[in-house]
Design a protein that fits this description.
Helix content: 25-40%
Shape: globular
Structural class: alpha/beta
Largest sheet: 7 strands, mixed
Strand content: 25-35%
Low-confidence stretches: 190-197
Strand order of the largest sheet: 3-2-1-4-5-7-6
Distance between the termini: 19 Å
Number of strands: 7
Order of helices and strands: HHEHEHEEHEHEE
């Protein structure tokens, strides 16, 4: 299975995108590094043909590195959803600068919006959800569950490797199929005042979840 561009080319395009100007702790806004996003997207396309000509949802899109990256790899159409107005301004500018037109950018609370019209609608749902730390305990699993509700095929999601056993348990409870398709290193730069280190190296899993019938 092939991709429309080489991995290094994709990473270069993603590095040119603007990130958060003032990240908001209540949304656990951390940027997905270009290298992580490129490897994740390239894996989805070359191993599972999950992007080219597919209907794609970028859930909690932030500046849009995953959704715009999917468009670079030939997605049929991308819907990008975020609760934060400032993040939506950044992804809108990024899409315009990248000359991406097959994207719909929507302000909505992904976990609480009226999404019945999207139930099992998207071929592929992409997300780098909040890790579920501080005041957002369990939000990562809520994102995964909603992603499954809205996909007719697969969900691809980035999670701390330390949560692997918990995710395996939830997958079993939900009656869906899931596996880690890539193990990555996330060099998280100090983003908020409470961060004591300049950067922190975090092991991250790229999960693929599918419905039993797929």
């Amino acid at each position: 299975m092939s991709a429309l561009m080489k991995l290094k080319t994709l990473e270069g395009y993603l590095q040119d995108l603007s990130g958060f100007t003032k990240p908001k702790i209540q949304y656990e806004q951390y940027e997905t590094p270009a290298h992580i996003a490129a490897v994740a997207l390239y894996t989805m396309q070359t191993q599972f043909e999950a992007l080219e000509n597919r209907l794609v949802l970028d859930a909690g899109c932030g500046p849009g590195v995953l959704g715009i990256g999917a468009a670079f790899l030939g997605a049929g159409f991308v819907t990008a959803v975020d609760i934060d107005e400032d993040a939506l301004e950044i992804i809108t500018e990024n899409a315009e600068d990248a000359e991406i037109s097959n994207i719909d950018i929507i302000k909505s609370d992904f976990l609480n919006c009226n999404t019945f019209r999207w139930e099992n609608y998207f071929d592929t749902v992409l997300m780098n959800p909040p890790f579920g730390t501080k005041n957002n305990m369990g939000i990562d699993m809520k994102f995964l569950r909603m992603g499954l509700n809205l996909s007719c095929d697969s969900v691809y999601s980035l999670h701390k490797s330390s949560t692997r056993l918990h995710i395996q348990k939830m997958i079993k409870e939900w009656g869906v199929k899931g596996s880690v398709i890539a193990e990555l290193r996330y060099n998280l730069a100090a983003t908020y005042k409470f961060h004591k280190q300049q950067s922190k190296d975090i092991a991250v899993d790229l999960w693929r979840l599918t419905h039993p019938h797929t």
